[in-house]
Design brief:
The chain has 215 residues and is mainly alpha-helical. The chain is built from 10 helices and 2 strands; from the N terminus they run αααααααββααα. It has a two-stranded antiparallel ribbon. It starts with a helix and ends with a helix. The mean pLDDT is 94.
């Protein structure tokens, strides 16, 4: 039986590959704030996460999602976290991260007729940072570096770098979505742990793991 992570990857890959060969489909699914505002095409908050600019973009996002999503989904399903609610909460985190990661881009560019964005990076960032919250000492690579940086170091470094690159705004990458998605992933996980009165004190567990690592 496929995991929710595998289903998400499969659906995203199929839609992205189809859009690679159809400019019309790609145009209909793109995140375009002007069209969202003028035509109420709110679905674009979600469909833009199913398409990618090229194979490299698609493979990077889906590989990251697989590497961190599988483990996160397993943790969500554990009895000491969300138990039987884990699978649906995991999928809810990923899907709801689309609009939350794009909301700042929407407000900033809703009058910009030339602006468009695509890709699952915001939602993938939510999964990545939720993973870091639950596993702060997990080793992660950074660009050319192998996976040697602990998550609790990678996280702040990633946010600082994304903020810097977002201010420069010269690489056609939606860094604002990365930042918003990352923050949302942490807030969502903490909020759900509080709501479900999880036996795992997520924030306390984070602090304890980091403290043990630094000893």
């Amino acid at each position: 039986m496929l995991s929710h992570t595998q289903i998400i990857i499969f659906v995203t890959a199929i839609v992205s590959i189809v859009a690679f060969s159809s400019a019309t489909i790609k145009e209909q699914l793109l995140f375009k704030p002007v069209l969202i505002q003028k035509r109420n095409e709110w679905y674009r908050f979600f469909t833009s996460g199913l398409i990618h600019a090229d194979w490299e973009h698609l493979l990077f996002n889906m590989l990251t999602l697989y590497l961190f999503g599988e483990g996160l989904e397993t943790q969500f399903n554990r009895d000491n976290l969300f138990g039987e609610n884990g699978a649906i909460l995991y999928s809810t985190l990923y899907i709801s991260a689309f609009p939350f990661s794009m909301i700042t881009s929407y407000w900033k560019h809703k009058q910009n007729t030339r602006y468009a964005s695509l890709g699952a990076s915001g939602a993938v960032s939510a999964i990545l940072f939720a993973s870091i919250l639950l596993n702060p000492t997990i080793k992660i690579g950074f660009f050319i570096l192998p996976p040697v940086i602990p998550g609790f170091v990678f996280g702040p470094a990633y946010l600082l770098l994304s903020s810097y690159l977002n201010k420069k705004g010269k690489d056609n990458i939606n860094h604002a979505a990365h930042i918003a998605g990352a923050i949302y992933g942490v807030i969502f996980t903490l909020a759900e742990a509080y709501y479900f009165k999880s036996q795992t004190a997520v924030l306390d567990n984070f602090i304890l793991q980091v403290a043990a690592y630094l000893r």
